[in-house]
Amino acid sequence: MANSFTAPTTYFLQEGRENLDDCLKIAFQAAAAHDVRTIVSFTSYGDGVKLALDSFCSRDEFAQIRLVAVTFPVGKHFTNTNSEPVRVQIADDLLASFAERRVPIVRAHLPFDVIEPSAAWGTVAGRGLNLLGETLSMFGGSMSLCVQAVTLACDAGHVDEGEHVIAMTSDTAILAMATVTRKMLSELVVREILCKPAVFTIGRKEQKAIRAPKSNLEIEGSKPRRLKP
């Protein structure tokens, strides 16, 4: 049909880092297909950016694609399952490598994070946007990070308003039209969801909630076997 197009979406059966290689491949291939020149990567430790530089940016078909890295702001607190403090940051050697390869690093307060209350007033600012972030998490824990990465990269001047970019984490990638955080609700557009988890093994502790459709399986007797990609 002249007024429509069909595009693939890849669904992972788990969340997290084990999808990073596939997510990068999908993101770069989509960028080349859509003539998108910028991939915005939300990264905690810099692993995805390093892998992108080493395995994809060096290839001729992706030579025109540049990377922008977005990470958590200084001072954001993280804890493990035992409520013990955990450091989440990009190592100094990776920061130096990214600077040498002209990959900007954006650190800023995440728009969907609340602002801590004042001891005097006992108020919390930003609850409305925090609710928006929780809503996006229905699509997967990384969807809100992708959206925030686009606006923060635009806020920092590394992406132009109205520019189409691909934003990604380790398990989610979207094609979006960028805008600044201030105009997020009126101008940001998510054009396509390129890949995302179908089972929320981290955010909601799901296990075996869904299986791949039969079209992705090869039947041998009565036992299905997943086809290799």
Secondary-structure blueprint:
Elements lengths: L9 E3 L7 H15 L3 E5 L4 H9 L10 E6 L20 H9 L4 E3 L19 H10 L6 H13 L8 E5 L4 E5 L6 H4 L1 E9 L19 E4 L2 E4 L3
Which features would summarize this protein structure in a list?
alpha/beta; 6 helices; seven-stranded mixed sheet; 229 residues; 26% helix
How many beta-strand elements?
Answer: 9
Outline type: globular
Could you say what the CATH topology is called? Pyruvate Kinase, Chain: A, domain 1
CATH architectural designation: 3-Layer(aba) Sandwich
Estimate the strand proportion.
Answer: 15-25%
Class by SSE composition: alpha/beta
What's the CATH class, please?
Alpha Beta
Instruction: Report Rg.
Output: 19 Å
Domains (count): 1
What is the terminal separation in angstroms? 29 Å
Strand order of the largest sheet: 1-7-6-5-2-3-4
What summary fits the major beta sheet?
Answer: 7 strands, mixed
Uncertain regions: pLDDT < 50 for 5+ in a row?
217-229
**Helix coverage percent:** 25-40%
What is the H/E order? EHEHEHEHHEEHEEE
Q: How large is the count of helical segments?
A: 6
- CATH homologous superfamily label: Pyruvate kinase, C-terminal domain
Mean pLDDT: 89
Describe the fold and architecture.
26% of the residues lie in helices and 19% in strands. It contains six helices and nine strands. It has one domain: 3-Layer(aba) Sandwich (Pyruvate Kinase, Chain: A, domain 1), CATH 3.40.1380. The C terminus is likely disordered. It is α/β, with parallel strands linked by helices and 229 residues long.
